[in-house]
Amino acid sequence: MNEVKEKLRLDKYLWSIRIFKTRAQASEACEKGKIKLNDVSLKASKHVAVGDVYHIKTSDRNWLIQVTGLLDHRVQYSEAIKYYIDNTPEEEKEKLNVQAASFYTGKRLSKTGKPTKKQRRDFEDFTNEL
């Protein structure tokens, strides 16, 4: 493992462990108060220390991670997960799985979007009978 011994910015760390896709997104999350340490919002320039526990809110899920090592460059996911412990509560992880299953069924959600051809024909038949 190539660990960094000196100071490491929070936005760079979150980008390198693949919580955020870009450093800009990590910095923006810090600015918006989505990254917290001991219930205090942090700036992107805050230095990361081994043992810190961060609460991170992303569009997909809420994370609770503990830093186990410092990483200053982006690596494969299988390598990146060695630099933190994911302490996210199980109910949060399960909510993500349920949400993923409901989104990609291939079926249109009811009462959203354009009606199907059958629904349109049924509606036209109904209005013509009146």
General description of the model:
It contains 5 helices and 5 strands. The protein has a 5-stranded antiparallel sheet. The chain is of the alpha+beta class and 130 residues long. The termini are far apart. Helix 1 packs across helix 2 (23-31). Helix content is 36%, strand content 15%. The chain has a single domain (1-92), classed as RNA-binding S4 domain (Structural Genomics Hypothetical 15.5 Kd Protein In mrcA-pckA Intergenic Region, Chain A), CATH 3.10.290.10.
| Share of helix, binned | 25-40%
Assigned CATH architecture: Roll
What CATH calls the topology is Structural Genomics Hypothetical 15.5 Kd Protein In mrcA-pckA Intergenic Region, Chain A
Shape by Cα distribution: elongated
Main β-sheet, spatial strand arrangement: 2-1-3-4-5
- What's the Cα radius of gyration? 22 Å
Distance between the termini: 75 Å
Report the structural category: alpha+beta
Strand element count: 5
Outline the fold blueprint.
Blueprint: H1 10-16, H2 23-31, E1 35-37, E2 40-41, E3 53-57, E4 62-67, H3 77-80, E5 84-86, H4 90-103, H5 117-129
Antiparallel strand pairs: 1-2, 1-3, 3-4, 4-5
